[in-house]
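Let us practice reading a record.
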Amino acid sequence: MERLSERGESRVTLLAKPFHISKPAISRHLRVLEDARLIKRRRQGRLHLIRARAAGLHEAQRWIAHYAAGWDSAFDALDKLLKAEQGKGKKP
């Protein structure tokens, strides 16, 4: 996703180049991203061109932000609990 965001539309072969995994594995990864509507695939002859979907990224960002608020609250509660437990272990 980072490479697509930096480059815009890119060929599958260029996206796959730095990764040491098989072409079928790259295709499976891209299919998952496509099913999640985070990328869009366009075919131009034999070339498959991939582009990040800004709308999909915004949806993912909203989902993450929604759950991040809950995570922050849970981490704050855990921090308070740990500090209380540390306070119990100290001798006067």
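A brief commentary: The chain has four helices and three strands.
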